[in-house]
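tool=predict chain=A
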Amino acid sequence: MEVKAVARYVRISPRKVRKIVGAVKGKPVETGINSLKFMPQKAAAIVVKTLQSAVANADHNNELDVDALFIKNITVDQGPSLKRFRARARGRGSRILKKTSHITVVVADEA
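tool=predict ok
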């Protein structure tokens, strides 16, 4: 059985999150959380939080065994960008895009 958790509108670029997601796909949940906790990136803490939410959903809503869960898939999609302007030389302005992400974590049991 598959259970998912979604973190939407997270204020980090999807490219930065995708960098660390590949390290934990397909691993057991406990191993994935332990490896993410020791990564220095900001994205690792966000993915850990979403992963723990998926595990809590599996435990509470579907009554699955938490120790038997593994990370089936993690997808990172781009959300809407916040558009800002910064003053530049000769009275001009340039656009700054502050990107957001939607992170979806899918965990499944062995069966």
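The beta strands are 2-10, 70-78, 82-87, 93-98, 101-108. The radius of gyration is 17 Å.
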